[in-house]
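re: ur msg from earlier - yeah i can do the tetrahydrodeoxyuridine complex, just paste it... oh wait u already did. ok heres what im feeding in:
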Amino acid sequence: MTDRELVDLAFAMLERAYAPYSGFPVGAALECADGTVYTGCNVENAAYGSSICAERTALVKAVSEGRRGFVRLAVAGRSQDYCWPCGACRQMLYEFAPGLKVLAARGDGKYFACSLGELMPHGFGPKSLEQGE
Ligand code: THU
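and the outut:
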């Protein structure tokens, strides 16, 4: 699958986003090492703090289905700026895929490709815990 195709899957998920409070729909598509893709969207809640982002929706769908190895993530919004993964999503993704490639797309369809390491240098992950005591 090309980067463009993965980004388009993320854009398609904007239709499923439930974002009545922020008015900011987000879609995500997470690719596993074998090419399988799990999609997600943000799902908000009247108790605002209970809302979940698109990327974490895709991630928990994948992990709960037994997947662990991820290679690429596309995240898309309708915003002018690229739709960057929030800090909580970066952290959750780092747990399973510190070397993940990230494609952040904006409303006009363009996307910016980078690595999760670039978005989150000096990340804290499972390896960090091995260095305690
Ligand atoms: N949102 C995401 O889904 N992913 C991100 O990484 C950034 C923020 C959602 C959360 C909330 O539903 C809306 O965008 C506005 O913050």
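cool cool. DSSP finds five helices and five strands in the chain. ping me if u need the other ligands too
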